Structure formats: C-alpha cells, structure tokens
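Troubleshooting: if your tokenizer reports a length mismatch, compare against these two reference records.
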Amino acid sequence: MKNVHGLEKHRPDTIREARVAYVVASALFFIAGILFIIFPQIPDGILRWIFGIGLCLIAATRIFAYWSNDLYRLAFQYDFAFGIFTAVLGLLLMVNFEYIMSHLQLMMGMYILLDGLFKMQIAIDAQRFGMSKWWILLISSLVVVVLTVPLIFGLIPVDELRLVGIAMALDGAENSWNTMYTVRVRAKKENKEELYGELDRIESPLDTIRKRRGKKQ
C-alpha cells in the first residue's frame, strides 16, 4: 500500500485534464452523431476526415486518460487497449476509406457495441466500489448495447449513416455521463482513500491472532 500511494503522490496530477479531455471528446462524438442524423447525405470526402481524424483524436484521449493518475482505474481501465483499437480503425478509414465505408454500419456498430460492453463492466465495478448510482451506469450501457445490435445486423430500414449517427449520439452521451460520475466520485474520495491506506498498514488484533495461529499450525 505504501509504494502505491508513494507513486501516486510523485506522479503528475493529470486526472483533471484527462477527465475534461474525455468529456469533450465524448461530446464531440455525440455532436457528430447528431449531425449524421440530420444530414445523412454528407459527401464521402468529408466523411473520410470526420471519421478518420475524429477516431484518432478519441484514441489519443483514451490512451492519455488510461495513463492519468486515477487511483481507482475505474472509468479508464480499458482505454489503453480500446484506444489502440480506435486508432487503428481511424487510420483504416483514412487509408482504405472505400472498403471501410462499404462496411461502415458493421464496423461502427462493433466499435460502439464493444464500448458499451466495457461500460457495463465498469458499472459492475462501480457497484463494488460502493457508488450509489452504479445502476444508472449499467442501464445506460445496456441501452447502448441493445440499440447497437440492430445497427450491426441492419434490422432497421433507415439510412445507414443516420443509424450510425444514432448509435454515436447514444455512445457519446453515455461516455460523458460515465466519466463525469465515476471520476468525480473518485476525486471526492481521494483523501479518504489515503486515510484508509494509512489505517490498512496498522495491524489489527484479529490479524495478530490469525498470524499466531498460522505459526502454531
């Protein structure tokens, strides 16, 4: 416990910047989704750069957030691997746009589905941390997952880009809420965590008894 807290104290305090960057990136993802819903006939040349650059920026934000000094590693715990996956998807969209566009509904559907599943896991972990509103996180991630399945299989007879926009808007809103709640709660509990860390280093009488019994056995 001592080493962990020592490392946290000597690391740069980047959690605030990571939180802001993550919320801004999620908000932009949400706005892009709304634009695709309203204007589903955007030219391919513009879509290439919107998707490509946008996903690469989101990837950079995810990786930066993962390396921030978030003590609980709750909101950003899966973002290193998922950030790399997002960067690869963004680069593929810029390099081989025609191929990806022919499978855009499937590719973006899988991306958003994975994000929703990771957020479900975060909601379950939040419950273990004692966060009172973990069930809201779980419901919002379930909504994203359930509504993304028809997008992947093309079950709704709506314009493809409009469907992608709906899924993006839902995912962006869910990510913003998830980050604002989980990271904010961690910040409020930071001093308590340090206090509990100090208390954990004090051996209780029960621990002493258990150790003595173990030596006798």
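Reference record two:
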Amino acid sequence: MKNIIFITLLLLSYNSSKSQTLDQDNYTSVISDTNFSINFTNNDDGQSFTAGITGNLTSIKVVVFAEDVLNFCTSGDETVLAMELHSGDGFGGSVLGTSSNVTVVDGYTALTEFIFPSPIPVVSGSMYTFEVNIVTENCSFLYTNLEAVLNGNYLGGVGYNAGLAHTSEILFQTLVNSTLSIDENGLEKITNIYPNPVQGFLYLQNFKALKSIKIYNTLGQLILVTKDEKIDFRKLSKGIYFLKIETSSKKMSKKIIKQ
C-alpha cells in the first residue's frame, strides 16, 4: 500500500512539473499607441520571438480588438481568426502548426489565447514567428486589430505588418510545457537539441538511454545513424534535415536546418 501511495505521489509531482510556463512576455496593461489591422487584403501580420524554454508550445496570447467603426454591421456579425506558427524570423519559414479558431465580435477587446491542438516543439534560443489571419468574416466593416506598442523594448524579435518588419511590437505572451526527463536520482532535466540552425556540430542534451539517432534528408534518404550526442554537420550540404531520435522510452522527430 505504501508503494502505491509513493508511486501516485511521484506521478503527481511529475505531472505538475509539466504545467504551462509563461515563456516570452511582451504584454502590458498600458494603452497601446498603435495597432496592426488584419483583413483579407492585409494578412502577414504577426510577431517574431526567441524561445527561452525548450519544450512544447501550447498557446500564444495576443491583445485583439474588434470594432464596427461605421456601424454597418448587424448584431451577431463576427470574425473568425486563427494563428499560424512559422519557423525562423518572418513568414518565409515552414508552418509548424495552426491554432484552433477564435471568434470576435464588435466591441471585443481582450488578451486572447490561440491554442494549438497539437503542441509545437520549440527550442530555447531558436526564433519563431506567429501570424494571425482571418478565417471567415460576415461583415467586412468589423475591423480587427492586433494591439501593439510603438518602439517597444522586446529584444527577441520584431513585429510584422503586411509582411514587413515594423517599428511596433505586438503585445503577446507564449506558454510552453517544458520537455522534461528524470535522471537516476529523480532530478528533472530539460532535454535540448542545439544549435538549430546548425553550421558545425549539433548537440543533444539530457536524452536518457539513447538507442539510435537517424538523420534523413528531404527526399527521405538515410544520411547517418549514430548514438553520439555530438553530431558533425560540417560535411553535410546546406538545407533541411530530419532527426529521428529513439530512446528506451520514446521516439521523437526534429527538423534541423544546416546553414
């Protein structure tokens, strides 16, 4: 009976360690002095950021404001939004995931959470860019904006308006579940793969009981098989590769960019 209680407490402790963590925070309660307008002819609005935690990105919060300034919409008119996450700085990178839809109506102003149904792996020190787009709207006069601050102090990325880097930064927060492993003493460690993009050596950190590491190119061809946590990328051509990692307890994949 004592053993069962001990195991239960250990599981509860482990699960609580995987609760959401506020990572990047560029949200402020002050009134913003500019905003980015989102509409069907002006997409590519968003913000780049640098992850500070290696783990699974579960959601991003932004301040959304919607207003029928000309009073042309009727009661019940709404706009449906969704967020995409791109790799790298800007919208040219791969789309890593898309959030669930969010609905806004006239007069809506809130720190709005865009939740990713499938959490997206992010790596500390790597850059990502979120983009908010309109999915549907039934009144084009319901103007929808992302609130931003002019000449802000966020150093991890830049705001984008109509696809171009802007002097304003969107008010946002990112929430991440840390990727954790447990060592032989029960101490939690963060698993990490860095640097990405890579030019020389790629390092794997805190992966327990590695069985194999396989590297594939974009054609699906197997390039390398190893168990070494230090992988030499110097002789590989520039481009995208896929890391397939197998341990005694799990399998995972990771896209790697060779510069």
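Descriptive notes for reference record two:
- The CA atoms of residues 72 and 165 lie 32 Å apart.
- The chain has one helix and 23 strands.
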